[in-house]
Design a protein that fits this description.
Blueprint: H1 3-10, H2 14-24, E1 29-30, H3 31-38, H4 42-54, E2 58-63, E3 66-71, H5 76-102, E4 107-112, H6 113-127, E5 131-136, H7 146-158, E6 163-167, H8 169-174, H9 177-182, E7 186-188, E8 197-202, E9 205-210, E10 222-227, H10 229-245
Parallel strand pairs: 5-6, 6-7
Antiparallel strand pairs: 1-3, 2-3, 4-10, 5-8, 8-9, 9-10
Helix pairs in contact: 1-2, 2-3, 2-4, 6-7
Length: 247
């Protein structure tokens, strides 16, 4: 990448980059010398020099009753970047507040593949609230999640995230080890209510799995995520209705 391109990313215009680069190897220079070496038209030089002075990238002196200019050490460029970062940090809380206020309240999207499942698990940690499981299948025992699950379970315990499981009937017979992993409280659906789907609710998320069976995700798992506080609250009521009626 050319110097001009990099200087442009820092915030210098094309002409500012040309003039500054010409001064780096020229020492103290007059306006005529700068225009000649930088190939920036003289009528633009005054404006460019003024902006470089404002940025603190050059200095101005008088030599024999005429102005001459000299480049400041290029490390000043780092200061410019840090100054911009500080300015952004100052207004960032207000920007984030505006973003939160006007962020779309209700959205729908999908996660695909095993990495999508990992992202869903990360969402649970990020939200940090109780998770309600309907028709749970012990999917976390899928071998592809083995290493990720250790870190996930350690972190969710550290954050004090509670699980409330309503498992499918078969889980107790086929994957009882999940009960030790997640801990109580948990209950089971009656045998005749088994299905290849399950629903998880946490915070403002409702996550639906399809094509799943005890302890095993689909080959290419797909999760449908609905982000809606109103919907999540409704699903929690469905959960509570089932929970209160199960033994």
């Amino acid at each position: 990448m050319a110097y001009a391109d990099i200087l442009g990313e820092v915030g210098l215009s094309t002409n500012e980059s040309k003039v500054y680069e010409s001064l780096l190897s020229a020492g103290s220079s007059s306006i005529e010398q700068i225009a000649l070496k930088s190939k920036v038209h003289r009528r633009n030089i005054y404006d460019v020099l003024g902006k470089l002075l404002e940025k603190g990238l050059i200095s101005e002196t008088f030599v024999q009753n005429r102005k001459e200019y000299r480049a400041i050490n290029p490390s000043r460029l780092i200061d410019l970047i840090q100054e911009k970062e500080r300015k952004v940090q100052e207004i960032l809380p207000e920007l984030e507040k505006k973003f939160t206020e006007y962020e779309e309240e209700e959205t729908a999207y999908m996660y695909k593949g095993i990495n999508g499942v990992k992202q869903y698990l990360q969402d649970i940690l990020d939200v940090g609230e109780t998770v309600y499981f309907i028709g749970a299948k012990a999917l976390w025992l899928d071998p592809r999640l083995k290493h990720f699950l250790v870190k996930f379970d350690r972190e969710r315990r550290r954050k004090g995230i509670t699980f409330m499981h309503i498992f499918d009937y078969e889980v107790n017979e086929q994957k009882p080890e999940i009960l030790r992993l997640v801990g109580k409280p948990y209950k089971f659906l009656p045998k005749n209510y088994t299905s290849p789907t399950c629903v998880d609710i946490f915070g403002d998320r409702v996550v639906t799995f399809v094509g799943v069976r005890p302890g095993q995700l689909d080959d290419e798992p797909v999760q449908f995520v609905l982000k809606s506080k109103r919907l999540a609250e409704g699903y929690k009521k469905f959960f509570n209705f089932m929970w209160d009626r199960l033994e």
